[in-house]
Specification:
This protein has about 325 residues and is mainly alpha-helical. About 55% of the residues lie in helices and about 10% in strands. Strands 3-4-5 form a 3-stranded antiparallel sheet. Strands 1-2 form a two-stranded antiparallel sheet. A hairpin with a 2-residue loop joins β1 and β2. It is elongated.
């Protein structure tokens, strides 16, 4: 075990926990463990060392000298940086494997209390970024239904709510009257895995929803309606296909056909929040993502958009 002034120990419960004050020593300890106890091949050790030293350099720029200070966000930010620099997804996943193995070793050896890499999964789908609308395009789409008829008022309420909450299509069509909390200004929904979450609605969505409930739903409701929030012209709850047709109809009217589908509202919701300065973890909670690395892709989207704006408008772009 490495010793020296850059390593300190203290009692933790019944044992003594070693804390590395220097990332370099922690990495060297891990590589020695792989070589001596696991018999890892020299070329593999070299690759692991290179990946971990790159991560160490990134952390040093952030002022982190000890593994104890590393957060999950730091790992995700580093992986995002590598991807933006052009590293293939397979190579990013190799780096992630090295980082996960490193922190797993430190926690198993009682040299860390928590594992910041726990729960960060392999990167999937980074090659294809989700399409989002600009704020102007979204305003154009939301204003399209107008206030002329029953279906238009209902459709406007549906789209306002989708943009205001980022709900999945399945969550929208399964909303019940009892899911709305008017006093608190939020709704309750169940997402993937039956996980329940609370999502704020926003004033415009609440206004559109109130009008629908007061003027439209009572005229659509029939014996078969039950307590579904949104009803079709037959008085039944919507199907996924039915909701998709509504979105496509209005997208066609504002010349956005082919650029809009129901999930576009969810993508735009997350992207616009992050562009406005929202906290990544808050967006994760509202979207109902179990893993923050899933939410991280929207940060990548906003960065791509900023780069395109810079290229378009900067005199030397």
């Amino acid at each position: 075990m490495p010793t020296g002034r850059r390593i300190k120990s203290f009692c933790a419960g019944s044992g003594i926990r070693i804390i590395y004050e220097n990332m370099k020593e922690a990495i060297q300890s891990y590589l020695s463990f792989l070589a001596i106890e696991r018999g890892v091949a020299p070329l593999t050790l070299e690759a692991y060392g290179r990946d971990l030293r790159g991560f160490m350099s990134f952390l040093h720029h952030r002022g982190f000298l000890s593994p104890e200070k590393v957060r999950p966000e730091d790992i995700i930010d580093y992986l995002t940086k590598l991807r933006e620099e052009g590293l293939a997804s397979t190579s990013v996943n190799r780096v992630l494997a090295a980082i996960r193995g490193f922190f797993k070793y430190l926690t198993r050896e009682k040299r860390l209390e928590r594992n910041p890499a726990l729960g960060i999964e392999r990167i999937k789908g980074w090659q294809k970024l989700p399409h989002t609308l600009t704020k102007g395009e979204m305003e154009q789409l939301l204003s399209c239904p107008g206030e002329k008829g029953l279906e238009e008022v209902r459709d406007g309420a549906i789209m306002e709510l989708m943009y205001a909450t980022g709900l999945r299509v399945s969550e929208v069509i399964n909303l019940r009257l009892g899911n709305i909390n008017w006093y608190g200004g939020y709704l309750v929904t169940r997402g993937k895995g039956g996980r329940e979450r609370v999502v704020p609605m926003g004033e415009k969505a609440q206004m559109a929803l109130r009008r629908y409930l007061e003027e439209v739903r009572p005229r659509l409701a029939k014996a078969v309606s039950g307590d579904f929030l949104f009803l079709n012209r037959m008085g039944k709850g919507f199907t996924r296909q039915g909701l998709w047709k509504i979105i496509v109809k209005y997208a066609r009217k504002v010349a956005l056909e082919g650029k809009v589908h129901p999930h576009t509202f969810r993508h735009s919701f997350a992207t616009h929040l992050l562009e406005g300065g929202a906290d990544l973890r808050a967006v994760q909670v509202m979207l109902g993502h179990a893993d923050i690395s899933t939410t991280q892709i929207y940060t990548h989207v906003t960065q791509e958009r900023l780069k395109s704006i810079h290229k378009k408008y900067h005199p030397r772009g």
